[in-house]
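Journal club prep — side note

Before the paper discussion, L.F. wants everyone to see what a predicted structure for a comparable chain looks like in token form. Sequence:
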Amino acid sequence: MKKSFSLFIVLVLALTLAGTVFANGGSEGASDTAGSGNLEASLALDGQVAALTAADGQALVKVGGETPQIPARPADPEALPESDPLHWWDMEYAGWNANKTNIPDSPADGAIGKKIIMIVHGDHPWTTAYINGATKVADVYDMDFTALSPNWDLAVQNQMIDQAINERPDLLILIPLDAKTAPQQARKINQAGIPLILSNTLPQAAAMDYCIAWTGPDDFGQQRKLAKVWADKMGDKGGVAYVQHAPGGSPYFARYYGPMSELAGYAPEIKTLDAQAPGFDADKTQQLVSDWITRFGDDLNGIFAADDSAQALGINEALKKAGREDIVVVAAGNSKQGMDLVKEGVLYAITYQTAEGDGALAVKTAADWFNGKDIPPVTYLPQAIITAENVDEYYPPQW
């Protein structure tokens, strides 16, 4: 009986062990199949994403086409004068010569169900549209998607980064609030082992070493293109002033030093009279422009605005009160206010910049990475200049 009982126990243990091994093997096989199935299902959703549209009826996910011609980097860009376009090489072309560090390999197991945290720069109607575009793509892939805003406070953005790291998402998307601080932010995220995509605003070049990719507008390129249209309208001469973006982020540099340095070579007879950053406040912008009109009189021939909404409205009010219809005004962006002002003839030209498409491109790039696709280090949105001749093509506005 003892032998029979012992044999029975051994047999039971053997069968239990065999069952455990089989179950583990089956579990691994199921996991592999699920991963493969998730990848196939995720790739199948790419067509749905490609069919999405933004509020203006344009395709939601669009890229800028061919890679721009990147000039050779000067030995010391900052030693060049600020009016030399190459002074801004490390910001304008950040990412194209990055030394990628500790970048994780793609899991290549599909985008469906992945947890993504997006941290933007601040509250603004543009940002709302940006998040809407990101959400549209995330919804198609059934991602666990969260967007956070520090409302233009760098200390709060840094706290949100710490919070996001603690939550251990599958990937983090960040709009850097301050170009100079971005490398430290990116390094912290990278060292925590969390894949990172930088979006919209350009950081200092060192930040690009720690991210999978950067996506967004070629802001310097757009403003250089807009500057030429602006200069041509003024006959390539005259005095101009710049209503600047919020200091710190790359738009502050791209939307002043971009056009200013471009015109130094393209239209050297155009002279910069002043440049100030009143914030995104119509009343403050109106007061600034009224002061310019008083100070410079007929020497003020053009105004370049970093924002085509609140700033453009303030400029319009100042010009109306002064009866100055001769000043050529251009602005970055294409909000409803901006496009309406183009139709009215107040703004001569603005840049096309899809806010929804910007957010959508960042999330689509994340999905492509989860799906094992090759990701370029930089992906630009398309460029276009909007004037009275083509503004109707961009209605209804995204924001």
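L.F.'s comment for the group: The chain has a mean pLDDT of 91. Keep this in mind when we get to the figures.
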